[in-house]
Structures are given as C-alpha cells and as structure tokens.
Amino acid sequence: MEELFMSKKIKDENGNVYVQKKPFYKRVWFWILAIIVVIGVGGAIGGGTDDNGGTKVSSSKTSSKKATPKYYKLGDTVKVGDVTYTLKSVETTQERNEFEDEKPANVIKVVYHVKNNSDDDLPVGADLDAYDADNNKMKTYPVDGVTMDAVAAGKEMDVTEGFGLKKLGKVELQFAPLVSIKKAAKFQIDVK
C-alpha cells in the first residue's frame, strides 16, 4: 500500500538511486485544479443571470419614453471626485495654427475653472473630452493659451482647451480627472 503514494525508486548500474516522479496528470493536485477551473469556466459561460437575454421588441405603436441623460450647462459647477469644474465659456474662434497639419472647418475654445480639493497635484488639460453632434470624439486643436499644467493640492486655476470640429451644433463636454474611476461630468452646449 505504501508504494501507491510513493514515487518509484530506480537503481542504475553504478548503484545510484533515482526517484521517478509520477506524471503531473496523475497527481491529485492536478485534478483538483482542473475541476476548479472547469467549474469556474462553466459558471462564467452559464451567465448566472435570470434574464432571457436580448431586448424585447414591442410590436405596438405606443411611444416609449427614453431616459435622456442629464447634462450640465454653461456656468454650472460640478464636483467629480475631489475636483470641482466650472464651465466658463465655449466659443468659436477664427484663429488657426499655421503649423497644424489638420485644418478643421471650425475651432472652439473652451475655458473652464478647476479647483483641486485633493491632497495631490492634479494634471489639467487632459481632463476634458469633447464630442460633436454626431457623437464623434473631437481632436484637440492648438489655440493660444492652451493649458497643459498641474494644479497643486488645495489650489485652483482657469484652463483653456481647443477642439476642431467639422460642423457647428450641439457639443458634449466630459470633465473628469486624468486618473479617475468616477463618472465624468457631462455638459452640453449648442455652439453656433
């Protein structure tokens, strides 16, 4: 019985004793691990939800109310994590950067105020994303006064950012600190 659990011992012609180990697939730990993995994968694939999957399509002609997202407006002050943002202005500008390869039809200049309520320096200038009326992310555009800086803990500053867009209309601005897990504050502005 003792030989079932022990490794096999082999002697060579010089009298040296070697231990021949069992292959890994014949070991108990391998099978326990394999069972745990199979159960985990089966649970993940099985879903564990009680819904039927998909979205029910209604054949009736009743209008359904869609939840419209809440947007902040120009002048509102919003706190995201330890940072407070105030959108001060959004305006079109005729200024163009002669060294920029892209020549957008329109350029907007966004000015906002940042107050850093955290205990660490806060990088600014990369904390704003902009989307045009077609929900396409707008590229930043270098305009005079663009801010790429940092705000010390407990301090505040005005930040300027430029964006190029194809056509004027509703623009969505999303503010969130560069390294943040908080949801971004969404502003919507009609740029004319």
From TrEMBL:
* Pfam families named among the record's database cross-references: DUF4352 (PF11611)
Q: InterPro entries per the record?
A: DUF4352, Immunoprotect_excell_Ig-like
What domain of life? Bacteria
Q: So where does this one cross the membrane?
A: 28-48
Give every DUF4352 domain span. 72-178
Q: What is this protein called?
A: Lipoprotein
The lineage, from the top, is: Bacteria, Bacillati, Bacillota, Bacilli, Lactobacillales
Keywords on record:
Lipoprotein, Membrane, Signal, Transmembrane, Transmembrane helix
